Amino acid sequence: MDSQHKPLSPGVKLKRLRESLHLTLREVERKTQEIAAEKKNPEYIVSRGWLTDVENGEHVPSIFKLYSMSVVYCRSWSYLNSLFDVQTSDIGKDQAIFGMGKTRLVDSPEEEEGGKVVLPLRFREEHQLDNTNLLSKLTAVWGDIPVSLVRHLNPEKCLYGFVGLQDYTLFPLIRPGTFVQIDVNQRKIMPVSTGVEFERPIYFLELRGGYACGWCELKKGLLTVLPHPNSGVESRHFNYPQEAEIVGRVTAVAMRIASDTGPRERRARKPPEG
Asked: Using one digit for the tens of pLDDT, what is the confidence trace for 40-80?
C-alpha cells in the first residue's frame, strides 16, 4: 500500500486532534490534573510523557484517561473510542448475538447510550431510516428504536418491557420478542373476562429473579399467570404480593407479525394435552 494512503494510527489521530485545538502536551497535563483533583483519583491524569507514548502508538488509554481526554478535547467518549476501532454503537448489535431469553424491563434512556432500545430479533440489514420507507420495511431494522420517541407518547405514566425470546406465555397473541408499553398506574388485577381475548387485561409482573407478561387471576392471595390456551405453556402460581408484584397493565405492543417458524415456535402452537 502506498504510504501516502496508509490509514493513520489512533495515536496520530489523537495528536492531530490535540494540535487542531492548539493544546500543548503541558496544557493537557495541567487540565487533566485539575480533573483528577476534582475526581480525587490520579488515574485521570494524562502526563506529558504518557501522552507522547500514546501518540507514538506505545500505549492505549485507560477508561479514566480516555474520559479526561474526552473532556479536554471536547469530543465525545464514543468518538475517542472509535479512533481505536472500538465502536460503542455496536454494543447493542453485539449483545444481540446472545439474545435476551427472559422477559425484562427495558433500560431507561439514561442507561442506553443515545437513548435507544435494542431488540435483538435479528441483525440490521442495509436499510436506512433516513429515507422515506413503508412501515412494513421497518422489520428489517427492528432492533434500533429510540426510547425518546416511544416515551414521548406517555412519559409520565409508562414503562416499556421486552417479552423474552423464549417466553411463549401469550403466544400467538403476543409473540416472543414483543416490545410492550406498560401503564404503571393500572396495577389492580381486574376480573378475567370470558369475552374476546383481545379485551382481557394483560399485566407485566416482577417476580423473584425475573419478569413475566400474561393474563392474571387473583384468588385468596394466590396470583395465577394465565397463558394463552394455544401456547402450550402451563399456568404459574405465586403467593401475592410476596412472590409477585404487578408492574402495570400492558396498554400497547409493537411486535413482528411474521417470522421464520422454528421448532420451538411450532411446539408452542400446540395446545396443552389433557
From this structure: 999 999 999 999 999 999 999 999 999 999 999 999 888 99
**Residue 110, in any domain of the structure:** yes
Kind and range of the H or E element at 237?
strand 236-239
Q: What is the pLDDT of residues 182-200, one digit of tens each?
A: 888 899 998 766 667 778 9
Q: What is the CATH number of the domain that holds 163?
A: 2.10.109.10
CB distance 182 to 271 below 8 Å: no
Last residue of a domain, one of 27, 57, 86: 86
Torsion of CA 16, 69, 146, 158, to 10 degrees: -170
Based on the fold, state whether residues 148 and 207 are members of the same structural domain: yes
pTM: 0.52
Closest CA to 178 of 201, 225, 134, 145: 145
CA distance 233 to 169: 6
Domain that holds residue 64: 3-86
Q: Is 70 left (phi over 0), alpha (psi -120 to 50) or beta?
A: alpha
- Cell triple for 142: 427492528
